[in-house]
Amino acid sequence: MNTYDRIGTGYDATRSADPLLAQRLFDLLNTPVGASVVDVGCGTGNYTSFLAERGLRLTGLDPSERMLEEARAKSDRVQWIQGHAEAMPFADGAFQAAVTTLTLHHWKDLGTGLAECGRILQPGARFVVFTSTPEQTGAYWLRHYFPRMIERSAASLPAEDQIIEGGMRAGLVLRERVPYTVEPDLQDLFLYARKHRPEAYLDPEFRKGISSFALLVSDDELERGLDALSSDITSGKWATIRDQHAHQGGDYLHLVFERQ
User: Looking at domain 3-259, which of 3.40.1350.10, 3.90.1150.10, 3.40.50.150, 3.40.1210.10 is its CATH number?
Assistant: First the structure.
């Protein structure tokens, strides 16, 4: 079963398009109104719908039918298609831009998926990737409480140079690299979204929309980690743990490619 078929129910209870992140995606795409754009791994279509509302012609592609059911109810401006990044059901040069947000680690084959992105994009098209690198994820303070989970999560992420090299082989040249640091009011509650509000991680409703907690943590590690985190929040020790994990390279990353 697809990862997000397993956690898709109730996904939107914690996952929504953050206005600032969504606007940054739109700005980085730098694509004229009316341009055709594909969102690879669109999920329930939160960012897809945002971009469509800004006047772009969106196609949302996702392998999870459960996610797409929710997406279809969200917007009729978007063409919603079930499919995989590694074998997209689109013609060569079908799109004027593409975007993918926090999905590269779910692709079965990064090189093949990037080659497909290169194939379906027109020359000069932009491809905006939002991801986290293994180094960024490995620096999260969550590692103190859930070390094996964060180790597994970081290991599942493609390295930045791997993405860039795979892009080059697909005719995608890196034009911009824009780190993103989580702000306290972030509305899309992915893994490190509550960097500044640790009590959120004690809530099972918050955790269930995050694939690392849904798939990469054992019951024993989860119980131990939550107990330690709760204790450290109460004592104030958590602030020291946070400061020990300060990272200057951003928490996530936008990579902007151009199709040659």
Answer: 3.40.50.150
In whole angstroms, give the CA distance from residue 202 to residue 71. 28
**Residue 8: pLDDT band with limits 50, 70, 90:** very low
Tell me the C-alpha distance between 237 and 258, whole Å: 45
Kind and range of the H or E element at 242? helix 238-244
Largest interatomic CA distance in the chain: 58
User: How many Å apart are CA 207 and CA 232, to the nearest integer?
Assistant: 19
Contact 124, 225 (CB under 8 A): no
In this predicted model, what pLDDT tens digit does every residue of 110-155 receive, in sequence order? 999 999 999 999 999 999 999 999 999 999 999 999 999 999 999 9
